[in-house]
Amino acid sequence: QVQLVESGGGLVQAGGSLRLSCAASGRTINYYRMGWFRQAPGKEREFVASSITSGGTRSYADSVKGRFTISRDSAKNTVYLQMNNLKPEDTAVYYCAATTRAITWDYWGQGTQVTVSS
């Protein structure tokens, strides 16, 4: 099993940047497909980005393409989400996730709040 702990959330003005971190323990992230999801108040959790392996295929939600970048540091066993040009609609709790399966995500962090003010 892998345990995931997110950090790096906070309050930022529109147009600003944040970098979220997801520190993994218990197993190397090289074993997993890693992803970021978010959930805004009153909305369902939605996919943001995923990475199969370091340097491998990355996928993004259309709403964040060109603004967000997912990356992995195997030496630190950490996954990052660099978020640039943030918009108020990016406000949500952001969750890190890991899986070895094609569709279902097996492991989740506790989430970190991102608030973007206009």
Q: How are helices and strands ordered from N to C?
A: EEEEEEEEEEE
- Give the distance, in angstroms, between the N- and C-terminal Cα atoms: 40 Å
* Average pLDDT number: 95
**What kind of assembly state do the chains in view correspond to?**
single chain
Strand content: over 45%
Supply the helix-strand structural class.
Answer: mainly beta
The amount of helix comes to under 10%
Detailed description of the structure:
- The protein has 118 residues and is mainly beta.
- It contains no helices and 11 strands.
- Strands 2, 4, 5, 6, 9, 10 and 11 form a 7-stranded mixed sheet that branches. A 4-stranded antiparallel sheet has the order 1-3-8-7, with no helix packed on it.
- Strand 9 (92-99) and strand 10 (107-108) form a beta hairpin.
- The radius of gyration is 13 Å and the shape is globular.
- 33% of the residues are buried.
- The mean pLDDT is 95.
Brief overview:
The protein is about 0% helix and about 50% strand. The protein is mainly β.
Key terms for this structure?
11 strands, mainly beta, 7-stranded mixed beta sheet, 4-stranded antiparallel beta sheet
Write the layout of secondary structure elements.
Layout: E1 3-7, E2 10-13, E3 18-25, E4 33-39, E5 46-51, E6 58-60, E7 68-73, E8 78-83, E9 92-99, E10 107-108, E11 112-117
Parallel strand pairs: 2-11
Antiparallel strand pairs: 1-3, 3-8, 4-5, 4-9, 5-6, 7-8, 9-10, 9-11
